[in-house]
Amino acid sequence: MVITITGAAGMLGSRLAERLAADGHDVQGVDLRSAPGVTVVGDIRDPRVMDRATAGAATLIHCAAALPSYPANEIRSIIVDGTESVLAAAHRARVGHVVHVSSTAVYGLPKLVPTPEEHPRTPVDTYSAAKAAAEEVAERYRAGGTKLSILRPKTFLGPGRMGLFAMLFEWAEEGRNFPVLGRGDVRIQMFAVDDLVDAVVTVLNAPDDAANDTYNLGAERFDTLRADFQAVLDAAGHGKRVVSLPARPALAALDLLERTKLSPVYGRLLHKLMGDSYVSIDKAQQRLGFAPKLSNQDAILRTYEWWREQRHRTEPAQRGRTSRDPWRQGALAFAKIFF
């Protein structure tokens, strides 16, 4: 089967390309950046690029997206306009099955946990609004007859993932304590990228009625944020601990740093860390027969092991900012002297 993957140079796209090629499929990858598995270099918003990328494809997996740290106009353009462009090309090419990788960010900051798929989309910032709008585009094509799976993973991580986790790993490696807001007793569900790849493969092989639906995805086993972060500090071997910060003053300080562009930690993430955040995966388990294998701690520790092995390697600069890149810590880099 010929399968087109958008964002094929990214963390998820590249892992999918490897897995599907190993399974015997012909993979056509499209990305702004040249990389193994990328057969079409270009912008998904360009119809000519997407027409080349979808030529002959039976299936399309849409992974390409912006990060929450991008400028607001880029977030909406890449996520919403990009999804419109990708799905229009799939329609022109008569692609039989589209998998749209969305996010649980569409729920905003839901009060109902575990959050079911039926929960209203209540975006609270530019990124979550764009992801919600992209789902509306996908649902329009589904209503028009396209077999279309929408997958909503929690924050996924694994080898290749940097972002905020690089800050945790760096502080742990340097033998520092690591702060959490409040007591750190909130339960924050994450998701291993290996399990996400398995979920995509599962939905590709699902019966049409099951595939043509929307699914939450996340770890089945997860602990408190304090316990998950402490596992990394324990692995570092310096005897350091997760330490509590007074929640309200710390939140106010981080909000100020974000507004002044001195910290990469964005508002929705800050407020998400103040309360339980997990979704129901019952639907994926019951309709798809999908069972996540890895816990939060499994995923975090695998990512930490990978980070330790490769942190001193240098790679050639590529166009674009991805989840493979560590966050620039800004003012937080100076704060670590207190821990």
**Residues in helices, as a percent range:** 40-55%
CATH superfamily of the largest domain: NAD(P)-binding Rossmann-like Domain
Sequence of secondary-structure elements: EHEEHEHEHEEHEEHHEHEHHHHH
Low-confidence stretches: 316-320
Supply Rg. Answer: 20 Å
Text of the CATH class of the largest domain: Alpha Beta
What is the overall silhouette?
globular
How would you concisely characterize the structure shown here?
42% of the residues lie in helices and 14% in strands. With 339 residues, it is α/β, with parallel strands linked by helices. The protein is globular.
Protein described:
The protein has 339 residues and is α/β, with parallel strands linked by helices. The protein has two domains: 184 residues, 3-Layer(aba) Sandwich (Rossmann fold), CATH 3.40.50.720; 124 residues, UDP-galactose 4-epimerase, domain 1, CATH 3.90.25. 42% of the residues lie in helices and 14% in strands. The chain has 13 helices and eleven strands. The strands form three sheets. Strands 3-2-1-4-5-6-10 form a seven-stranded parallel sheet, with helices on both faces. Strands 7-9 form a two-stranded parallel ribbon. Helix 4 links the parallel strand 5 and strand 6. Helix 2 packs across helix 3, helix 3 runs parallel beside helix 4 and helix 5 crosses helix 8. The radius of gyration is 20 Å and the shape is globular. The termini are far apart. The relative contact order is 0.15. About 1% of the residues have low confidence.
